[in-house]
Please model this.
Amino acid sequence: MHDLVIRNGTVVDGTGQPRFDGDLAIDGAVITAVGDVSDRGRREIDAAGRLVTPGWVDIHTHYDGQVTWDPLLAPSSWHGVTTLVMGNCGVGFAPVRRGQEDFLIELMEGVEDIPGTALHDGITWHWESFPEYMDALAQMPRVLDVAAQVPHCALRAYVLGERAHDLDLQDDEIGEMARLTAEALRAGAVGFSTSRTILHRSRHGLVPGTHSKPEELLGIGSALGTAGHGVFEMVSDLQGQEPDLSWMREFCRRTGRVLTFALAQSPIQPHAWRETLGRIDELAATGLRIVPQVPCRPTGMLYGLQSSLHPFITHPTYRRDIAPLPHEERVAKLRTAEMRTRLLAEEPATENAIARALMTNWTHIFPLGDPPDYEPAPERSVAAAAARQGRRPEDVVYDWMLERDGRQFLFAPLANYVDGNFDALREMMLHPRTMLGLSDGGAHCGLICDASMPTFLLTHWVRDRRRGERLPLEQAVRLQTGNTAAVYGFTDRGTLEVGKKADLNVIDLDALRLHAPEMVFDLPAGGRRLVQHVDGYCATVVSGQVTFEDGEETGTRPGRLVRGRPLQ
Ligand SMILES: [Zn+2]
Model:
């Protein structure tokens, strides 16, 4: 008798090998048989006609705050994620000195658009050091496994205090950050992260460490080499080009550790990504492992009356007369001819050139719709619709935002959509040295909702894509499981093999359906966040226990803290 048997499923095991029909036996938290299972299970799940896959391993999230109060970690948990990595992009909440909590919250709020009031109300600071943060995480049960990285911003604030933003450091300060990183890695941190992009700002300006010099990064990075485990994660405007590449190469050479950074097709240099991948191939031939992280759809800004950005949000009349109103009143007022005339006569009033360009990038703003269309044809853009109708883009977009009772979202892909399709993205995803990432689960609550990326990988890339080639099922599953787990050294999971941890999804691929994103106000202090529901996950299993069944939470809390350690 086994504890649990998943019967008659189509097993896609995360290794990339062809799917096969079979059973899976689970005892305790471990897979004990794959193939034909003759013994009965104390509990059996009929998976006939369903896919059985490993649980998704999402290595790029920002649940660092939410993880301390919310055992559910939605929306990622709704989408079959069974292991997630936090502490990305340099921001997080440990180590922290008494009195610095607000500063770290402001950084998180600025960079990741998580409401500061929610973090304020939600987090109880039971820690100072990173190991104490890990212990606090370990004490709380939750639906899925979490792993944490050491955020550079927190480290700088801890060691440098008021000088957290300073460029020039003393040797002993770099040494102290390296020492604290080593301490965190010993406690099980799975990496170190930093931000080198001008897009990541708080009310204090660019986040600490944005322009850190190579000696600082190499100094801190040395801790990863000594520890023998951990990933160096980074987001940088240079995207793997010089001068970053020199110290990245040096980091890998000195430490033997993996470095990962966010790679995208940029509108400014639409072909740079391919050159970068070529250089990374060359380095790989010499044994250095740099793993560009790519998403499976463009980072999707969602413009709408409920979100943080849309074309009218900085118009003086909007700011004064509409923004302060509750949603229903906003919609009612915007529907009046008088308000329409006034707003269409105004211009965006912002000094922020990037925001202004994004808000009026009419060729790259589309109706998202329901079901959401994340690969819209160029002729669906605001610009194209306006040209067809002989109207101004502002006029068209004004109508669109009022659809669905003012809850329509417009999809504004940020990078990775230069050609108006996913062909470049597909090439990046299939490149042997990349890995899937950048769902940003838990973050960008007012503007982006990409935690559903693992689901999208199946609905769009495996099943629905019409505007280009799809992905083979086995390959897609491997990218979100075996591959991400391997890069992060999670050797106990990521594939459905005997001896591996029993983390898995039973999926009805035909019924798998993403709903339109919606804004909810359920964070602490009534904070808002975008979420996205899904149908088609029949069961999600973590450590042998069923956590979700047909979209309903079962109430079990098998999720644990994953502590990184050197491989044997
Ligand atoms: Zn991030």
